[in-house]
Amino acid sequence: MQLLPIPCPADQVPDATGTERFNAAYKAAKDAGVTYVGIERRGRSWTVKTDRAPGHVVTVAAACIIRKAVVRLLLNREVRNHASAGPDYVQLNGVASEQRARELAAALHSALYGDPEPLARAVPGMSS
Predict the structure, then answer these.
(1) Which domain holds residue 21?
(2) Do 112 and 58 form a contact (C-beta atoms < 8 A)?
(3) Count of structural domains within the chain
(4) Residue 119 near residue 65 (C-beta atoms within 8 A)
(5) What is the pLDDT of residues 62-116, one digit of tens each?
(6) CATH code: domain of residue 34
(7) 26, 62, 69, 72: most buried, per Cβ within 10 A?
(8) Does residue 5 lie within any of the structural domains?
(9) What distance in Å separates the CA atoms of residue 14 and residue 1, rounded to the nearest whole number?
(10) Phi, psi of 40 (to 5 degrees)
(11) CB atoms < 10 A from the CB of 64, how many?
């Protein structure tokens, strides 16, 4: 599997639907020592996942903006209530389309690597 750029553009976020594709994408990220990012089809909706690489430090500011984005997505009902946004792992369930899932995944990945602007654009209305 090809190593993804950091941050990963939306069109290159891997579709990790199914156990085999998820395992391959996750293993590739972990073997390369980079933060995992991927999307998965779940019935009629999509799930976005990120998992911080062991050596990657997420700043307090990045973690804060990610939490704010997840809250805004929940309030807007763009994701289901069982979304999670911990310091190491983010999972957004119930995203309506593949395109939106890719946009959110790329924006989260960018925020994890210190650039919050794509996330602020993808999730407008976050309070500061």
Answers:
(1) 10-122
(2) yes
(3) 1
(4) yes
(5) 999 999 999 999 999 999 878 888 778 999 999 999 999 999 999 999 999 999 9
(6) 3.10.310
(7) 69
(8) no
(9) 10
(10) -140, 135
(11) 13
Pair of tokens at residue 9: 């553009």
- Take residue 79 and report the two structure tokens written for it: 């994701």
Chain-centre distance of CA 27, in angstroms? 17
Long-range contacts from 53-58, C-beta under 8 angstroms, 24+ separation: 53/29, 56/112, 58/87, 58/88, 58/112
Amino acid at 81: N
Confirm whether 3 is domain-assigned.
Answer: no
pLDDT at 86: 79
At 125, which amino acid appears?
A: G
Regarding pTM above 0.70, the answer is yes
Q: Let me know if residue 128 belongs to a domain.
A: no
27 in any annotated domain: yes
